[in-house]
C-alpha cells in the first residue's frame, strides 16, 4: 500500500530554500539526519496531464484564498512573480524562493481530491 508521496525540489541554494519553507511557508519538518530537513506537506493530490513535449513534473501549492495568501507573503517580504492569472481551473500566481526558483500556487476552481 502506498503510504505517502515524497516531493523533491532541486535548488541552487538548498539551505536558503529550506529556511524559507520552514520560516515563511511555516511547514513543520523533521531532521532526517545530519541537519537534512524534510517537511510535512498539506494534503496532496496528483494529476496526469497530456503533453506534446518531453515528459516533465510540476509542483504547485494550493490555497483556499489566493489574495489573502499573497497579501501575507507580501507582508513577509516575499516576491510575488507577476500578476494573478485567471485560468479555467483556478487562479494562479507564483512566488520567488531565495534560490531564485519560482514556486507556483493556486486557488483551485475544480473539485479537489485531497479533501475526500
From TrEMBL:
InterPro entries: Glyas_Bleomycin-R_OHBP_Dase, VOC_core
Top-level taxon of the source organism: Bacteria
Domain named VOC: residues: 3-108
Name this polypeptide is given: Catechol 2,3-dioxygenase-like lactoylglutathione lyase family enzyme
Species, as recorded: Streptomyces achromogenes
